[in-house]
Structure formats: structure tokens, C-alpha cells
Amino acid sequence: MPEDHQPKFATVAVHGGAAPDPTTNARATPIYQTTSFTFDDAGHAADLFNLEQFGNIYTRIMNPTQNVLEERIATLEGGTAALATASGHAAQLLVMHALMSPGDEFIAAKQLYGGSLNQFGHSFKKFGWTARFADCNDPDSFKALINDKTKAIFIESIANPGGIVTDMESISKIAKEAGIPLIVDNTLATPYLCQPKQFGADVIVHSMTKFLGGHGNSLGGILVDCGTFDWMASDKFPTLSAPCPGYHGKVLGEMFGPMALAIACRVVGLRDLGPCISPFNAFLIATGMETLPLRMRQHTENALHVARFLKNHEKVAWVSYAGLSDSPYHERAKRYCFKGAGAVFTFGLKGGFDAGVKLVNSVELFSHLANVGDTRSLIIHPASTTHSQLTPDERTAAGAGDDVVRLSVGIEDAHDIILDLERSLDKI
Ligand SMILES: *Cc1c(COP(=O)(O)O)cnc(C)c1O
Question: Which one, 91, 256, 268, 294, has the greatest CB density within 10 A?
Fold first, then answer.
């Protein structure tokens, strides 16, 4: 290919970060199932440990199978560097660990994945980090919570589970004015449907457990540094702008510029907290990524069929899918994820809590479980499961009231998916 040609999305999804193995010529990326890597000599070892040179030391910090995945996703998201982790939650933890000190605050949308609400609202408190929650439909509610201690804003591009598309550009403007980074969880959209960097994200996180891996077989997370934030512009982020005690006083923000956050998350956060991804999981997820565009096309096409079917069903009170033209989020979906509004959405049953329980007990093709983004169609009743630890008010605020059912529409034949729902709704 000509040297100045930028390969397109589907090509990067297959080839990004990968090349035939230099020692064996293996075409598929090998699983480098090793804990450690030999040094050429003592000087080489010292350079690696002092960040004078990049290279493999120990699989907690980096591994060649993991690197393929990181380069592939960094390229697809338009970022400068990425760091793969054991899970989506691990990626969120490492980003916050780089940005926050005890006593600091960040602002998160209250419309988030239930697990993130728990992580932010409860476990992060033990580090002395306070999450304040705003309404992603009201950008000014973020602005109202900003103070001297605020270090970041965290939103989801398509919010789980409500089928909400967030107004990223308005919220990004508020973050920029405050001199703090915007972190976007792009799990439900994937870079195929939405590229948050174009709309002002500074950091992107994913649960690769979902659509990126795509087959419901491996946990994984990733953080992408968009390279857009100047960490040296203030003293708000000492992990990046102040001398680093773990590395003889080196200043990471100065040494690594637009990749500094991804590198800090690796050489400080991942090194010291330890939630690394196994080479085997990195291999499975990188393999899954090869078909991301094909799968996402089928997922979104099926989701639209299913949403239209439910919309017209007498036992269904409402459907919240931004792909439907009467959704309040349809205009935003056309702007932020014009190829489709994803495959995860909610609907309400006229029969409330009991009808939700009956439905999940009746389906046969759908799997009743707590995950999204599998090739298989998945169903859950959040009020009795994922969101059951929240108070009723928090549940309603998160779009997970008693009558709500969440679907993750798979890539089976749309007719079979609809038939399963039709037969199960009949039993209510
Ligand atoms: C699943 C999920 C997470 C957490 O990811 P894990 O891989 O389960 O740790 C975070 N955000 C969203 C939107 C998710 O769907």
C-alpha cells in the first residue's frame, strides 16, 4: 500500500498492531504465555527499569500479545497509546489512580453501568476519592458540581442500561473550561459506532468483555490516551506533572507528552496495583476484534428489528432505543453514532416487576444473565439483579426501575430472536 495511505477501520480491526511473528513467522498472533523476558545484558535491564528504553520485562507490566490488542484499539479510537487490563473496572481504577489524590473529587453521570456506580460511589471512597453524580441529559448539572478538587468528568457514550446517548460535545466543553479531562466509557458503542475523541474525549475506557471481545468468553478492559490533554498545564495532576518517586524523580508528563497518561497507568498503576490481562484473554479478545465491524453491523440491524417489534406489542409500555425515530435520543444518535445506536437497550413491561420476572423465566433462545455484547442474545431484569443493590431512587435514576427489562441483541437470525420474545411475552 502507498506509504501515506491510512488503512480503513475494517482493515485495522484485522491487522492493527499485528505482524507475522519475527522468530517463527506464525501468522496469527501467538499467545506469549510467559511471565518474564530475558535481558540482553545488565545495561539493557537497567535501561528498561529506568524507562530509558521500552521493552518486555514481566507480564504484569507488558506482554507482546497484550501489545497487539493495545495498538489495535488505540488506532481504532484515534488515540496515542492504550493499556489493556484484567477488566473494564480495572481500566477505570487505573485511570482514576493516575488522576486522583486523597481528598479529590470527580463528576460522573448518574446514568452508568451499575457496577461503575458501585465502584465510584462506594469502593473509591476508601481511597479518599469522592464521586459526585450529575445528569447526563443536563450538561449544566456537571458544571454546577465543579470545584477546586474536581479532577475529571466521567460519562458513557451510550449509557448502560438506558439506551441514552450522551451529549458529549457539551460536556466536553465544560471539562475544557475547567481544565480537567473528559473520560468516556465507550463500551456499548465501540469505536465502530462512535469515536469519542472526535467529540472531545481525552481518555476512553472500555470493558473489552463486551462487544470488543464479543463472544462472551473473556474478561478484559482497556484505557486509551487520546493525547489531547496537557498534564503539565497545572499542578492538578502530580502523578504526571511532578517528579515521580518510583522512577528517580522523572516527570512522566514531560518525558512522554501525549502518551503520558497511558504510560503512567502502566508503569505506576499497573505495576503497583497489578490488574494485568492474561496473554490468553488478550489473544481471544484480539481475535474477536477481527470481526468487530461485521458483528456490530449485525447487532445494530437486529436491535432495530427487535425494538420495532417491541414498540408495537400490547404488553410493552415503552421502548428506549435511540435507533427508533421517536426516541428523544434519536437526533444525538445520528450525530454521535450515525452507523447505529448499538444493541443494548431497555423496554418497560405494563405488568411491572412480576412481568419482568416472568419474561426472563420464559425465554429459550435468549440467555438470562448479567452481561452484554455477546454474539448470543441476552436478557436481564435489572431491578432483581444488576441494580438490586441500589436504592429504588438510584435505580430509577439509572434507568432500571421495576418494569424495566434490558436486552443485548445478538447476531442470530432476527426472526428467531423476535419469535422467542413473542412466545415469552404471550406467557405473561
Ligand atoms: C461491563 C461494563 C463495565 C465493567 O467492565 P468489566 O469488564 O465487567 O469489569 C464498565 N462499563 C460498562 C459500560 C460496562 O458495560
Answer: 91
